[in-house]
């Protein structure tokens, strides 16, 4: 038997308890120094009464001393350990500085203190009073919040700054000067014609007063759903069309200035009815608590600010045409300067608004502007408006009158809420020029490189950068690259299709032939002028639209319809194609022999008979110009002899000139046609007038003794004249040719053109055919291609007989 012996612990079983105490005791000691936070324990309510100054609005930069009283200090026993603090929730809007000792508490129940409140920036903040001590559970550093007051609202409003008034006065002066210059360019007849067929204004009205308010309302509800005041700001901005900058941008971008001014004026008048309509309907859904004030007085002031400068400009043009011409020429640079000044000065004056901008405000403003431009342009394109008119409608739709919107907000909302929410129209004003500037850069730098251009304005259809016709596209970068120099007439170029063709060089250079003709022309013209013994006065009664009559005293045998138009207005002068003197179609540069009635016709007369005569004059002039180009095209390589051009026949689809070329089996290439067209376009842009001169047949024979065809035609032409021996010749640049006329006033009245085909009529006679549009008429590329296709067909005019060479 084995016996086990166990040696027992003398403390058994107390040793287990002892071990437990030794383990737990350190934890208990540590727990004495750990602060246990009681959940959901809040500071006591501090009853604070602020002085009446705090409820008043404080201006930026102003400092006020605000007194306050703590009414329940008896709720706190240990005042010696307490410390008062006054703070601002948003110190960047208004800062607070306590005055006195924060630990000096009186034994009274009601304790009074004060602090300095300094306004920093526009907006709202809150002032809070706190008591700090060591007995609260809310601890910061080694102090704790014992009690806290209810936040007191503080409103900071903007100070009245001199720069704001300076900005307003600067805009008023610049816009007035710009509108005076516009008045010097306006033609009331064009404005009347626009009002008679108000397709453009009607499209603009629908875009401005139907689409834009609905678009602004939708964007406000979608992007600014949490702020009613911002919604109101965006909505009233969308209901305020007719910004004055639209006219300047329209002119800079090449829109229709007459349509722009007309739309701005009509939209301003429509605002008297449409703005109350929208503010009382959709506006009530946004701002139901108050009444949206429509600023009728401001709208009337805007209308007067538009009309009065325009009337001043029209008066200057009527009384001082030369001054008006200078002012009109200065409009474009002035418009650019004015826009730059307004943008830079506006950013400086409203720099504080940048601090109020947030992502949603900027996004909503950008969407409103872009959708306005896009919808206006699309609607105009759908209604088949020309590019200048579509551009004008887009600009008028997208540009809003932010000044009216700001005024509505300021009279509808309380301050500083009104100033805070003007950030919406200011954001719209900031984003408005961005797309327009991008379009201007595209016009200047991008489109011209690909041969695509838009018109500069309604009267001038030439691109100011690359001299490319509106809407036309060429393979090269520009028409200028096709031509080697800037002489009045283009020099010869190398036709690629002539490399394998037998040619006969001319015996006399074309510049020598033209020089001799010009010498005879100038000599004969001087001789006829010397025959006028003395200047006699005649009365010319100009009949305008609506039978408006103006009597002009002019010089007999010297003054022309062009001179009469100079005394009426500049725009009429530019648009006039031919005249009607005593019912007879008359050249603009042909002297008037006696008292007469005068009408000045443009390319779109309402009378069908007048329209036919104007079209024939245009077609005839294009044939004349085509002969001028072709005669000089082959000057150093091929003998060229102009034969004739048939009577103008608009229905044929092409203007024609028949030319004898000493070529055998020449087949011109498309590149040859483009080169001739480029030369044609460059020449017509040089604004050559058609100078008419009636000469004796003997003088005509001397002029064209080098051209056997003309020499044969002159006697036959002379027998059909009123005197039986006179022949009418015209001069354009240094080219002279025979025609009964009349011709258009200037080559610049020819717009988009193309040399469509060159047909071989017999062994040496070729028929050059082209198609052109007046500078006032615009069609798209597809429509013009249809006209080109039609013009390629052989013109059915009679083929001339070659009786001599």
Description:
- By secondary structure, this protein is an alpha+beta fold.
- Helix 7 runs parallel beside helix 13.
- The chain is elongated.
- Mean pLDDT is 78; it is low at 1-6, 35-40, 136-141 and 448-493.
Short description:
The protein has 25 helices and 23 strands. With 805 residues, it is an alpha+beta fold.
The shape is: elongated
The average pLDDT value, as a whole number, equals: 78
- Cα end-to-end separation: 162 Å
Fraction in beta strands: 15-25%
Number of strands: 23
Main beta sheet strand tally, sense and closure: 7 strands, mixed
- The gyration radius over C-alpha positions equals 42 Å
Number of helices: 25
Low-confidence stretches: 1-6, 35-40, 136-141, 448-493
Any descriptors?
five-stranded mixed β-sheet, 25 helices
What is the topology?
Blueprint: H1 14-31, E1 44-46, E2 48-50, E3 58-59, E4 63-70, E5 83-88, E6 94-99, E7 111-119, E8 123-133, E9 138-140, E10 143-149, E11 152-157, H2 162-185, H3 188-196, H4 199-223, H5 228-238, H6 245-253, H7 257-280, H8 282-286, H9 296-319, H10 321-329, H11 331-349, H12 359-382, H13 387-398, H14 402-412, H15 417-421, H16 423-431, H17 433-446, H18 510-530, E12 537-543, E13 549-555, H19 561-566, H20 570-575, E14 578-581, E15 584-586, E16 596-601, H21 608-633, E17 640-644, E18 655-661, H22 670-685, E19 691-696, H23 697-703, H24 708-719, E20 726-732, E21 735-738, E22 750-760, E23 765-774, H25 781-791
Parallel strand pairs: 1-10, 3-11, 12-16
Antiparallel strand pairs: 2-4, 4-7, 5-8, 6-7, 8-10, 8-11, 9-10, 12-13, 14-15, 14-16, 17-18, 18-23, 19-20, 20-21, 22-23
Helix pairs in contact: 2-9, 2-10, 2-11, 4-5, 4-7, 4-12, 4-13, 5-14, 5-16, 6-7, 6-11, 6-13, 7-9, 7-13, 9-10, 12-13, 12-16, 14-16, 21-22
